[in-house]
Design brief:
This protein has two domains: 67 residues, no CATH class; 33 residues, no CATH class. It is an all-alpha fold. The two termini are 32 Å apart.
Length: 106
């Protein structure tokens, strides 16, 4: 699975993609897939850190706050509404269709 993700989402140093994240994380050992050593463990760890950062950013973006700390003051109903909004706008079938259409210029 790691090799497939690596080849599909590697990207370029100038753009976004795994290579950009690997550079930010200073993980040069992940630029080339390998079957030896700690590659699988290291890429799983990198993917976890990348996903965590994206989720943190998404929470802050949708909630329009500077930090996750600001969300601690919110009521559970507000957090549930924000989570529902995130799923609808970013993780639903409709969101995927919309993102695909935007990437194609429609």
């Amino acid at each position: 699975m790691e090799h497939s993700l690596h080849s599909q989402y590697y990207g370029t140093r100038a753009g976004h993609g795994l290579v950009h994240a690997f550079e930010l994380l200073n993980r040069k050992d992940l630029h080339s897939p390998s079957v030896q050593g700690m590659y699988h463990q290291n890429i799983k760890e990198a993917l976890y850190h990348i996903a965590t950062a994206h989720f943190h950013d998404l929470w802050c973006t949708v909630a329009q706050v500077e930090s996750l700390k600001d969300l601690r003051e919110q009521a559970s109903e507000v957090l549930k509404r924000l989570a529902t909004q995130m799923v609808h706008e970013f993780a639903s079938r409709e969101a995927l269709k919309s993102a695909t259409a935007k990437s194609r210029g429609n």
